[in-house]
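pls ignore typos typing on phone
zinc ion + seq
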Amino acid sequence: MDVLSLTRMPSFLKPEIPNCTSQCKRSLGHSSHVRVSTRFHRQLALTHKVLDEIPLSDTFAWNNLIHTHLSNRDPGGALSIYHHMMMRGACPDRRTLPRVLTASRICGDLFLGKQLHGQAIKLGFFDEHYVITALIEIYGRLDGIEAGKWLFDKSPRRNSVAWTMILKLYLMENKPDLAINVFYQMVELNARIDSVVLITAAGACGLLKSVEHGRRVHDVARKFRLESDILVSNSLLKMHIDCQRMEDARGFFNQMTTKDVISWTEIICGYVKKGEFNEALKLFRKMNMDGIKPDSLSVSSVLPACARTVAHKNGKEIHGYSLRNGMDNNLIVQNATTDMYAKSGLVDYALKVFERMKKRDVISWTVMILGFSLHGKGELGVELFCRMEKDQRVEADQFTYAAVLHCCTAACMVEEGKFYFNCIKEPNITHYALMVSLLARACLFDEARAFMEEHHIERHAEVLRALLDGCWMHHRRNIGKQVFEQLCDLEPLDAENYVLLSNWYSDNGKWDLVDKLRETIMSMGSKPKKAYSWIEFQNKVHVFGTGDISHPRSERIYTELQCLMKKVNAEAQRPASGFSFHGVDAERECIQIGHSEMLALSFGLICTQPGATIRITKNLRMCRGCHDSTKLVSKIVEREIIIKDPNCFHHFKDGFCSCRDFW
Ligand SMILES: [Zn+2]
Ligand SMILES: [Zn+2]
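k done
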């Protein structure tokens, strides 16, 4: 679950700040705003005294007052000035109406909008550009795009501002395909193409994720020589990234003659989203070298990359940078830093950052609660949730509830889980799946089934997989088999399900069935995902695949591992079993010691000082065999071993794992 991505929404959907460009929003500090508005209100009180003294004919003065209220986010004040003006019998001019229309739109007053429409016709302002655009906007926003479009079609003159308004309205109604059609109409009719309309069209292509439209819009930008406008080029860059064309985006980025902090942040973000974390980090460094100073958005964009590479010192380095550059009180940066530490396996550091925060929002709490669940500290997560509930300023949202349910699952706290589930106003499928997972892990299979029937969620793969996890943990073969059949029935073409089944068989040593399934998987044209583990040593990341013999120190790694497994088997008093199928091609005997995490572990033991903690990352879930062995290894070598798999962090120490064998 990526809570942080929620903070990014398309800019045109964000609440608007009148007369404030996005560049100015970035730089405007909250406190400066407060200062401005207090001064403004003092001035305003004085101004009101003189309202009655404004000469009726001085429309300029009235307009100015309305404008000042609007710019200070006080549409109600603007409307009251307008009423005052009307009461005194002053006459509005072509500049008055658009402003009053904007104020009534912000106040959501369509009725007043319609009255103003009548007034515009009466006063003969209906063919004024600004009046028409303001009317299109108020109808479009408050009465639906069709009403706005109708007015647009009827309007005697259409300028590019009105065209752009129609595009924006379609985007607001989440109809990017219609928006892009309007853009093509504009091009066809030779309407003036300016940077604003291009930026809007690029936004539409991004939402559509359409490479073809994206390229056409880019061609139009080139034709009208708008590419060199930094706002346009940034939006084209974002468009290529949103269309998942990183190569196009990178090519264009490299060509851009001017790049600002937004361009760099955009491309870094793109690589993070694509999972190319090392490239994101490289670009962040290059940005610094090119003399562009990262801002809080760039820092919070690159932090997720640090959490996902093994080299967690990158994260510390960037945290240090944010401290040195006075971003330590920036909420977005603090949330991203907490998340980065929690996901880098340094949950104590995450807690330190969290505790030092002067202000916390719902994301801060959610990130920390989830962090605890990732590290098998479910009880602490539930405690933190209770602490959050006492804070009147924050209200739990669906993600916070999912995080606390994760904690209940990790700590097997069934009653608490049920309590929190009942608090959720509109539970979604993730919440249901988490509840099923909790009940199944607690071995309450009948209750889990009853829960699924009660909520009609038996035919959801996510829910079935949650139930299956429980069956796997508690060795419930019969139920497991039924669930598998249901799952394969639901998603007959998803090879991952067959991989799960083959892991199940290999857990039970049924190698003939594993082989058969493997043929099925191959014949479906998909190969099971290959397993890899990473470990960092001396600033270099060492990657191991299953049965990998490509490492220069392979011989020593295998000898060490064989020796270790002898000790493990002696300690366990039985040979370790339960090794899963990860597409290993070598002989089966190699499997026991050939899993990538075991190779990385052996390498870590050889290379590091006795007593040092070993940190490994794996791309697939750990199998039971490796998990059991690693527990014993931690006891034999007296070291803490931390293995991160896609589900959680396993902290192995003294023969136990923090996940309590539930993962
Ligand atoms: Zn394994
Ligand atoms: Zn574990």
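Residues 579-580, 595, 622-623, 625-626 surround zinc ion (ligand 1) (CB under 6 Å). The two ends are 16 Å apart (CA to CA). more later
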